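Tokens as discussed.
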């Protein structure tokens, strides 16, 4: 993650840790989510543990983690209302969760013992926030990769301000990506248009120099003149200027380039010649109708 992303994650965790539940049951549920033992380097989470009644095992020194014993009853998920469940999940996220924003994608996971990971997946599914889990280095890892589900979870546990910033960054990143794609596409189209206009102008000069341009149809000459007058114009703009269909302009320009590449004796117009003799069939014989026409009534030659 970049420094900016790390700062956002730190601000988000600090905001979640600063949530102060008004209900006593929510405070107990969050304490149960943090415990029974908490090890953290984050001062905001350490202050939360003290606020909820945790006891520090030792005074933290520089570079030493905060360690807390958090006594309390086991959390009864099945008998608890939704607000208590969300408070428990808030504590679980602060104690065992992590959020990554690397490569522009959000990735949230909980690292727990295997049995607890399986239980957490079932509980998240009951709140319509399904997650997957896998084993990694002997621990169960519950994972969310869906940005929508992550945003839903963070909003429900109280990370509202940081969530807005996260969503704003996601929208800005999407807009930058879309803008870059549009700019790249326009740049590529412009490069192709410039190259095509250069070829067409060179072809027009060739046909003009050898006199073939004057012998072309009116449409071809009009398109050539319009291309010379406005080298930067697109095919659609030339068509609008000449009140022609775009396909007609494209065919005229293709004809100009083709004639410039292939000399046709200076005419610039294809001619069709008919064979002088009668056509033969596949066996090299005259068609039967013609043979009958050359015989008399008795079938003998006239």
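Sequence:
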């Amino acid at each position: 993650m970049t420094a900016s992303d790390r700062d956002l994650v730190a601000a988000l965790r600090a905001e979640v840790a600063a949530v102060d539940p008004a209900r006593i049951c929510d405070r107990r549920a969050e304490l149960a989510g943090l415990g029974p033992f908490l090890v953290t380097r984050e001062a905001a989470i350490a202050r939360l543990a003290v606020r909820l009644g945790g006891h520090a095992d030792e005074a933290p020194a520089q570079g030493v983690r905060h360690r807390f014993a958090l006594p309390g009853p086991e959390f009864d998920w099945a008998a608890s209302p939704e607000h208590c469940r969300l408070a428990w999940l808030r504590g679980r996220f602060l104690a065992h969760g992590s959020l990554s924003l690397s490569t522009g994608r959000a990735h949230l996971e909980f690292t727990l013992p295997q049995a607890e990971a399986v239980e957490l997946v079932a509980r998240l599914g009951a709140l319509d926030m399904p997650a997957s889990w896998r084993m990694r280095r002997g621990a169960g890892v519950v994972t969310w990769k869906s940005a929508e589900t992550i945003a839903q979870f963070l909003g429900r546990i109280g990370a509202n301000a940081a969530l807005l910033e996260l969503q704003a960054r996601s929208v800005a990143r999407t807009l930058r990506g879309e803008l870059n794609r549009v700019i790249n596409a326009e740049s590529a189209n412009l490069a192709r248009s410039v190259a095509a206009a250069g070829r067409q102008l060179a072809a027009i000069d060739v046909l003009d120099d050898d006199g073939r341009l004057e012998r072309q149809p009116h449409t071809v000459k009009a398109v050539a003149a319009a291309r010379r007058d406005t080298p930067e114009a697109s095919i659609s703009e030339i068509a609008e200027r000449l009140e022609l269909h775009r396909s007609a302009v494209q065919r005229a320009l293709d004809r100009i380039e083709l004639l410039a590449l292939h000399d046709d004796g200076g005419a610039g117009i294809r001619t069709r010649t008919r064979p002088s003799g009668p056509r033969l069939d596949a066996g090299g014989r005259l068609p039967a109708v013609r043979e009958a026409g050359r015989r008399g009534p008795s079938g003998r030659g006239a």
